[in-house]
Amino acid sequence: MASGRGWWTKRQLYAVLAVLPALALSACSSEGVDTDGPATAQESVITSDAVDSTRIEVSETEFAINVPNSRLTPGTYTFVVENSGSVSHDLVILGPGVESQRTSRIESGGSSELTVNLEPGSYTLWCSVGNHRELGMSTEIAVS
C-alpha cells in the first residue's frame, strides 16, 4: 500500500507541474482583452469636473428608475430626469450633504433637472409620488 500512496503523490505532483505553465502563460496573455474599448457598466465610473456640473440622464418608468451608472466620483452633478412612463413621477436624492433634494413632479413625457453636489458615500434615489417607492422606484448610487 505504501508504494501506491507514493505513486499517487507523484502523479498529483506531475499533474500540477503540467498545468502550472499553461496557467502562467494564460495569465500573461492579453489576447481577447480589449483594453482600448469602452468599459463595462461595472468598470466605468462617471467623473465630475469641479467647475462645471456633469449631466446624468435618468429615465423613470412604471416602476423603475434607470441611472446609467451607479458609481460616481465626488463633484457637482445635474440629474436630467425624463419621465418615460404614463403617470407622473419625481426624483428625490438623499445622502451625505444632500438633505432630501427633489425635482418637481414630472408629467408623462416631461423632464426636470436637479443639480446637487455629491460627497463620498451612498445615496438613495427614489420617486416620492404615491407608493411608487414601495413598487420598486428606488435605487442607490455610490460616490467615491
From TrEMBL:
UniProt KW keywords: Signal
Protein name, entry field: Uncharacterized protein
Source organism of this protein record: Nocardia ignorata
Signal among keywords: yes
Signal peptide boundaries: 1-24
